[in-house]
UniProtKB/TrEMBL annotation:
Residues 7-77, 148-201 form the PAS domain. This is PAS domain S-box protein. It comes from Williamsia herbipolensis. InterPro entries: Biofilm_reg_signaling (IPR052155), GGDEF_dom (IPR000160), Nucleotide_cyclase (IPR029787), PAC (IPR001610), PAS (IPR000014), PAS-assoc_C (IPR000700), PAS-like_dom_sf (IPR035965), PAS_4 (IPR013656). It holds the Pfam family PAS_4. Residues 205-256 form the PAC domain. CDD domains: GGDEF, PAS. Coiled coil: none annotated. SUPFAM superfamilies: Nucleotide cyclase, PYP-like sensor domain (PAS domain).
């Protein structure tokens, strides 16, 4: 015989050195075999364990818990289940038990037992479940919108704050993707951001975009999004979504005021010069209008009446130009119209005559008892391509020529 021993001896040493609990129980639930790990776990010896009833090994409480699995194994059906056990030293261990019936000539003679410790797995699952519970609780009670989004853009999980922000119920949102509620002008950017998260070129996205609420109204949001990847899963997007509509409205109003004449609501000099500077190619025309005798209106009827007249003149100018053109008040009683639609000198001259006719006439002002007749001097300039910086000066000179009757 080889010095390593017989095959049976080798097999016994292998089984005894396996950390899992391995045993065999006959149809009467008497132990016929158990490895060293099995008997050590329960504080037995192989000799003492042999012939013991499984109830006496497990204890009455665990036996009753395992009884349905034992009976199923004796009926010929393999079983696998988790069980928490306390070893002989009082240590709580989480295990996974497997019962495999031995069937000979169609009859179950007993079953093999394999019990592996899974405490690490159970602890990891517990920590995972606690983390999920904490995340869901935090998400549910968050004051801002929070969501879990799939890599296809569909809403997987949303909180109440997001429902209130969008006007949809959670069930309705989960039937939609973010594209379905994103403003059409913002969809391309949102898709680009999603692609960047998924291809790894960006780990975090912060952006401002518009959602369309269920009632059709627009809400501005600031969105922060990160991708979360895990073993064996495609990944998810965690998003925080905050309503910034009030801030955007305030910003837009400030931006509008920065380029708007406060009295007439037309554009101001800053807007005019910005538009002229940005128009680097193509034809462009200017009309420069100055009211005749405006100082006399102020001196006779007061500055309040003068302001009323400026507002009325601005309204006539705005009503008389094309939508593509821009009317601005650049100071006092001076107005400029940027005419993008003019295609020739003759064209701009027709615009000049039309504007002069629209502004000249009778005005009835709230603070003045009778009508006031107003005339205006209008100059024009036009450039086919380039040289736009000189247009304002040329139109101004032409206006003074018109005022002196030289045009």
């Amino acid at each position: 015989m080889d010095e390593t021993g017989s095959d049976a001896d080798i097999l016994r040493r292998v089984i005894d050195n396996v950390p899992a609990l391995i045993g065999y129980w006959d149809a009467d639930l008497r132990n016929l075999a158990a490895n060293q790990a099995y008997v050590d776990y329960f504080g037995l010896t192989p000799e003492k364990a042999r012939g013991m009833h499984i109830r006496d090994v497990l204890g009455p409480e665990v036996y009753e818990l395992n009884r349905p699995y034992i009976e199923a194994a004796l009926a010929g059906t393999p079983q696998q289940f988790d069980r928490t056990l306390i070893d002989v030293h009082g240590t709580v261990r989480h295990t996974q038990a497997t019962y495999v019936p031995e069937i000979v000539d169609g009859r179950v003679r007993g079953f093999f037992v394999h019990v592996a410790e899974v405490s690490r797995r159970v602890e990891a699952e517990r920590e995972r479940d606690e983390a999920i519970s904490l995340f869901e609780t935090s998400m549910h009670h968050a004051a801002i919108g929070q969501a879990v989004v799939g890599t296809d853009g569909r809403w997987l999980q949303v909180n109440q704050a997001l429902c209130e922000l969008t006007g949809y119920t959670a069930e309705e949102l989960q039937e939609l993707s973010f594209r379905d509620i994103t403003h059409p002008d913002d969809v391309a950017a949102a898709d680009r951001h999603l692609a960047q998260l998924l291809d790894g070129s960006r780990t975090h996205i912060q952006s401002e975009k518009r959602y369309l609420r269920k009632d059709g109204s627009v809400v501005w949001v600031q969105r922060n999004a990160v991708v979360v990847r895990g073993t064996g899963i495609e990944g998810i997007i965690i998003a925080q979504i905050q309503d910034i509509t009030r801030r955007k409205v305030a910003e837009n109003e400030l931006a509008r005021l920065a380029v708007t004449d406060a009295l007439t609501d037309l554009g101001n000099r800053h807007l005019l010069m910005t538009e002229i500077d940005s128009h680097t190619t193509g034809p462009l025309g200017l009309l420069f209008l100055d009211l005749d005798g405006f100082k006399r209106v102020n001196d006779t009827h007061g500055h309040g009446a003068g302001d009323e007249l400026l507002v009325a003149v601005a309204r006539r100018i705005a009503d008389g130009i094309d939508p593509a053109d821009l009317a601005c008040r650049i100071g006092g009683d001076e107005f400029v119209v940027l005419v993008r639609s003019a295609t020739s000198n003759a064209d701009i001259e027709r615009y000049r005559s039309s504007l002069k006719a629209a502004v000249t006439g009778v005005y009835r002002l709230p603070s003045v008892p009778g009508p006031i007749t107003v005339t205006a001097s209008v100059g024009s300039s036009w450039s086919a391509d380039g040289g736009h910086s000189a247009l304002l000066r040329a139109a101004d000179e032409h206006m003074y020529a018109d005022k002196s009757g030289a045009s």
